[in-house]
From TrEMBL:
The protein's name in its UniProt record: SAM-dependent methyltransferase
PROSITE patterns, sorted: SAM_OMT_II
GO biological process, one term: methylation
Claim: Isomerase is one of the keywords in the record: no
Ranges for domain O-methyltransferase C-terminal: 173-327
Catalytic residues of the enzyme: H257 (proton acceptor)
GO molecular function (one): O-methyltransferase activity
Family annotation (Pfam families): Methyltransf_2
Length: 350
């Protein structure tokens, strides 16, 4: 049935398209970015310093403006205005500053400006979804909010999980699905691997919802679905601080994009440690291009994540750097799944 469905990517692209609009207005009218670059091309870090942006906001804003065709990156890694971008500078006789300025007081634009300046909400960690750490109470630990946010991901997981499971190795061993949410990625993989075992690791309130969804999955009548239940262990915990069980395969689906770079590095190292020799760490996510200038679907998604979590989207090269630092062996395979998502993986030496 899944194969006959259209890829829902256009829906999520339109859903997130407001991010481009808001980022453009912020850059033009609240940060003066186009005037700065009009005076002189410069590297990302030089521009971030002038605009007083830290790494995460800069890595949301600059790739987005490149993806929109307003900036480009030269061979020396300097950002320039494109010819289109110069239409947003005051000295251009045909500039559109007044027209774009009609949106500068839009509440979404003002909120994004504030978040980019603070690298997050002005009051620490309030309003963040999908993350649980020591900074503030998490909605993922509130029964109603955990149910709401987990079920919000169910449609995406139902579509993508069979595609992900089809790419993951066939195995008789153990899969650890960290921050597994609904559990659909685990259930679909176990269906294809009839003697394997899996652990779904997440917050306790999320796992309550995942157990209900497993009942639905087990009773679906699909081939191999009925005996999945007896091969899943639900393990509640905090992936940042609690020990994780040893495993042959580890799946990190839509996980790294919720966290800042330093946390991603620490998690990659922790995940690598629990892999058995020859084990594999699989990442399922949307990736920025390694050139950090698109694609637009990714830069819009990255801005939406910036406004809701502690993370952003990262490039494959950024992921591979963490995995290599963690002692794993990476490769250059790119495995698209759907909805602008893809897989990458790294192996632990035997
Ligand atoms: C964006 S969702 C991804 C869920 C699932 N992997 C998917 O792709 O549908 C992030 C998940 O991370 C979980 N999470 C956040 N902080 C966590 C923590 N400290 N320990 C364990 N899980 C955590 C959340 O409860 C949520 O289910």
């Amino acid at each position: 049935m899944i194969k006959t469905l259209p890829d829902p990517a256009p829906i999520t692209r339109f859903l997130r398209a407001k991010a481009s609009s808001h980022l453009l207005v912020v850059a033009v009218h609240h940060f003066g970015l186009f005037e700065v670059l009009h005076r002189s091309p410069m590297t990302r870090s030089e521009l971030a310093e002038i605009l007083q942006l830290t790494e995460r906001p800069a890595m949301v804003l600059f790739p987005a403006l490149c993806a929109m065709g307003m900036l480009h990156v030269d061979a020396e890694e300097k950002l320039h205005l494109t010819e289109l971008g110069t239409l947003l500078t005051a000295t251009h006789p045909h500039n559109l500053l007044g027209y774009v300025g009609l949106e500068k007081e839009d509440p979404g634009v003002l909120e994004l400006t504030q978040w980019l300046r603070h690298d997050g909400p002005p009051e620490a960690a309030t309003g963040l979804s999908y993350v649980m750490d020591a900074d503030a109470p998490s909605p993922m630990d509130d029964p109603a909010a955990a149910r709401y946010f987990t079920l919000a991901l169910a449609g995406r997981a139902r579509y993508l999980a069979p595609l992900v499971a089809g790419h993951l190795p066939r195995h008789t061993g153990h899969l650890l699905d960290v921050a597994g949410g609904t559990g659909f990625y685990t259930y679909e993989w176990l269906r294809l691997n009839p003697t394997a075992q899996a652990t779904l690791f997440d917050r306790p309130e999320v796992l309550r919802v995942a157990q209900e969804l497993l009942s639905e999955f087990s009773n679906s009548g699909r081939d191999g679905a009925a005996n999945v239940r007896e091969r899943v262990t639900f393990l509640a915990g905090d992936m940042l601080t609690d020990p994780l069980p040893p495993t042959d395969l580890l799946l990190a689906a839509s996980l790294f994009h919720d966290w800042p770079t330093a946390t991603c590095q620490a998690l990659a190292a922790k995940f690598a440690q629990v892999l058995r020799p020859g084990g594999e760490l699989w990442v399922h996510d949307t990736f920025l291009d390694d050139s950090l200038d698109g694609p637009l679907a990714a830069t819009d998604y990255s801005a939406m994540l910036f406004m809701g979590t502690k993370g952003r989207l990262y490039s494959r090269a950024e992921h591979r750097a963490w995995l290599t630092q963690a002692g794993l062996v990476t490769n250059h395979d790119t495995l698209p799944t759907g909805m602008d998502y893809g897989l990458l993986y790294a192996r632990k030496a035997r």
